[in-house]
Amino acid sequence: MAEVSVLNMEGNEVEKLNLNDGIFGVEINEHLVHLAVVSQLANNRQGTQSAKTRSEVRGGGRKPWRQKGTGHARQGSIRAPQWTGGGVVFAPKPREYSKKLNKKERRLALKSALTSRVNENKFIVVDEFKFDDVKTKNVANMLNNLNVKKALVIMGDKNDNLILSARNIPGVKTALTSTINVYDILKYDTVVVSKEAVANIEEVYA
């Protein structure tokens, strides 16, 4: 069972915490992690891009000049793709990009991502996030004390003071345990999580 230090917001160790090996100590499945990231990025695409083919562009029904005798190359329409204002070859059309990932695969990918962060010592547990007011400086000081720059901060319960204080810091994102995903865990260098959030994750994914 993996053991991590629980720090306070000043960066001092206050206790030790044993992590559930069923979540934070699984065998890492890189293939499922890859599928989860591809699936999430694909699902975020709107798929609304569209351009007109030569059959959809207005005009061009008349042959611009006769077939022979002009010295020009033969042309059948001023809306052919090689003309300015013509249609687009293989024009993009609205389509569905989403990819399905089974629930078990999604859960195992998340566990693999969390395990990788624990193995790399990039999983920092804080006893609690306690902010009395909305000040960006407070969160910046906490991250400096933890020696962290680019971080995903995971809360157990919604903390408006933390969310509002962190939103102006580049490279920092806040999330609830119910909204964490593989892409964000891998995107940010360090995962900073409250002790309460660890308990929530172990309860949901055990």
Automatic annotation (TrEMBL):
Residues 43-85 are annotated as: Disordered. GO terms for cellular component: ribonucleoprotein complex; ribosome. Coiled coil: none annotated. Residues 60-71 have a biased composition (Basic residues). The keyword Ribonucleoprotein applies. Keywords: Ribonucleoprotein, Ribosomal protein, RNA-binding, rRNA-binding. Residues 43-52 have a biased composition (Polar residues). One of its GO terms (biological process) is translation. InterPro entries: Ribosomal_uL4 (IPR002136), Ribosomal_uL4-like (IPR013005), Ribosomal_uL4_dom_sf (IPR023574). It holds the Pfam family Ribosomal_L4. Transmembrane segments: none annotated. One of its GO terms (molecular function) is structural constituent of ribosome. It comes from the Bacteria. One of the primary rRNA binding proteins, this protein initially binds near the 5'-end of the 23S rRNA. It is important during the early stages of 50S assembly. It makes multiple contacts with different domains of the 23S rRNA in the assembled 50S subunit and ribosome. Belongs to the universal ribosomal protein uL4 family. Part of the 50S ribosomal subunit. NCBIfam families: rplD_bact. This is Large ribosomal subunit protein uL4.
